[in-house]
Specification:
This protein is 79% helix and 2% strand. By secondary structure, it is mainly α.
């Protein structure tokens, strides 16, 4: 292939450059003859005859080379034409986009492309679409290793949930990041994403929701849940139970976020409602940060109480006590010391101090037992009115769905056990089901063809075509300088080809363009009297039909006929 291309290149240059110089000399002779009135007709006739002979010879040489190129490249060009050419072009274009947003190396880009082709055999997505998923992961801040680890899981979630790849990548990156799951290496990213996908897929298949809606639910609650130590499985269980009651998507996410917020920042009315049930929010905090008297002092000073006079006494009384084990005792010690030591007599001020201390202790919680809270509320027989006071009127009404029980067992407890037992592998099972039968066969067939096109393109066909086209373009530009009308026609022709897209030039239209050049050469070698008119007619025909190669060919044929008639 390479030797034929090189030979063709040399022939094209020799075939075109010589006639161009001859044409320039002839036109120069014509210009000189214009000033010589006595011999004008004879000199113009000689110049035209010389132009016809040289360009006609070049046209025949180009035809021979075009026939050679056609015979040597017809099979690969046919395979890579049309759909194949578009697939190769879009795959490479999207790969470049991934490189642009991630700054990966050329070697990493090739590795990612190879991985995408492997996934192309397993999923009903084109290579270009798989790289678009990698692009979304990269745009979300994922690096090469994270993309390699997350890409398959992203495709799996999209297939299992029957959602677009872009949406799948968005859900995957949002939850993975918000839940602060490990994803530094490819292995960590793959493992964490598998966990996310399995929980979402299992919930979607077990309740009145779907993958997209569960993604919306987790988007709202995951950030605070990660800080509060609430697990992905616990969120999935809550989302499952809420969905069975018709609370789904963003609505469920906002309700769960409100519940966690209220657990760390309860209102006075919420505390009172909990107390009526014999409960306190601190009972459902499983860990606390290190206790600080200085932070307590800063917070109370902000609401008008200076506790510096009793800080030493507080330190002594609270020494060795932790919020995990002594939070109730700590609350009573602080309140008693402040009211007595600062001589706070007014009931309004005492309530203000009590509220501030309670809020301070609640805000020190690191991890929350959300499931335990709702299990306790079910056990205590919480009323709708108390739910509204604990979680506010709107969210309390939604969260009431979490209080349902079956034979005395809260559905929330049952859902969590179900997820912990059965969620693993849910995404793979759902994806495999969607690939059964003719769906998988067609996907494998399309993948085989796409990868064949890419292999052909990478075998050297692209480079050969590009080199020949570049050389030919340069030669034609030099030749066109000898005739403004020829240059004008060439512009019309190539504008028409460009409108068909770069792939049409490289593949489907390449050989047609060479034949069109041959037709153009015949035009020049045709009748001198009708040359300009035929050029214009051919250009007009090309514009009307919308096909550059066809227009050029029509022009050449018309010119050839005109030449023969002349």
């Amino acid at each position: 292939m390479a030797s034929k291309t090189s030979t063709l290149t040399v022939r094209l240059i020799d075939a075109v450059t010589g006639p161009a110089r001859a044409a320039a000399r002839a036109i120069k002779g014509i210009g000189t003859a214009v000033d010589q009135t006595n011999s004008r007709r004879l000199l113009i006739g000689a110049a035209v005859t010389d132009l016809q002979k040289n360009v006609g010879r070049a046209a025949r040489d180009i035809k021979r080379n075009v026939d050679t190129l056609t015979s040597s490249m017809s099979i690969p060009m046919t395979l890579v034409g049309g759909f194949g050419a578009k697939s190769v072009y879009e795959f490479e274009k999207m790969s470049n986009a991934v490189k642009a947003v991630t700054d990966i190396t050329d070697e990493q880009k090739k590795s990612l492309q190879s991985y995408a082709q492997e996934l192309n055999k397993l999923f009903p997505y084109k290579n270009r679409d798989i790289m678009s998923a990698a692009f979304e992961l990269g745009r979300a801040g994922f690096k090469y290793e994270q993309i390699m680890g997350s890409l398959r899981g992203t495709l799996n979630l999209a297939l299992a949930g029957d959602i677009e790849l872009q949406r799948s990548a968005d859900i995957a990156t949002n939850i993975l990041t918000a839940m602060r799951l490990p994803a530094q290496t490819a292995e960590e990213a793959a493992s964490s994403l598998q966990r996310v996908n399995d929980v979402i897929a299992h919930v979607a298949s077990s309740s009145n929701t779907d993958v997209g809606l569960m993604g919306d639910t987790l988007k709202y609650v995951a950030p605070i849940a990660a800080i509060a130590g609430v697990s992905l499985e616990e969120l999935g269980a809550a989302g499952m139970v809420l969905a069975k009651g018709g609370i789904r998507g963003a609505e469920a996410g906002v309700a769960l976020r409100s519940a966690l917020t209220r657990m760390v920042k309860p209102s006075l009315d919420a505390r009172q409602a909990m107390a009526e049930l014999g409960l306190s929010f601190e009972d459902f905090a499983t860990s606390f940060r290190a206790f600080s008297i200085d932070e307590l002092a800063a917070g109370l000073k902000n609401v008008g109480f200076d506790i510096k006079p009793v800080m030493g006494e507080l330190r002594r009384k609270l020494e060795g006590k932790t919020l995990e084990e002594n939070r109730g005792e700590i609350y009573e010690i602080i309140l008693e010391t402040l009211i007595g030591g600062l001589k706070i007599d007014k009931q309004v001020d005492q309530r203000k101090v009590a509220k501030s201390v309670s809020r301070f202790i609640s805000s020190q919680a690191n991890e929350l037992d959300m499931i335990g809270l709702f299990e306790a509320l079910v056990e205590k027989g919480v009323t709708p009115g108390q739910m509204a006071r604990i979680f506010d009127q709107r969210q309390g009404a939604r969260l009431t769905n979490l209080l349902r029980d079956t034979f005395g067992t809260p559905e929330l407890t049952t859902a969590l056990e179900d997820i912990e037992k059965n969620a693993a592998g849910a995404t793979d099972r759902m994806a495999a089901t969607r690939m059964e039968g003719i769906v998988g066969v067609v996907a494998a067939h399309v993948a085989a063809w796409e990868n064949l096109f890419i292999a052909i393109a990478r075998s050297g066909v692209l480079e050969a075509v590009t080199n020949v086209l570049t050389t030919l373009t340069g030669a034609l530009e030099r030749m066109a300088k000898s005739s403004p009308e020829l240059l004008k026609f060439g512009t019309y022709a190539f504008m028409g080809v460009a409108a068909l897209g770069p792939l049409t030039i490289l593949f489907g239209g390449f050989l047609a363009i060479l034949r069109a050049i041959y037709g153009t050469m015949l035009l020049i070698s045709g009748s001198a009297a009708g040359t300009i008119a035929v050029f214009r007619a051919a250009a007009g025909l090309g514009a009307a039909t919308g096909g550059a190669a066809g227009a050029a060919g029509a022009a050449g044929a018309a010119a050839g006929a005109a030449g023969k008639r002349g």
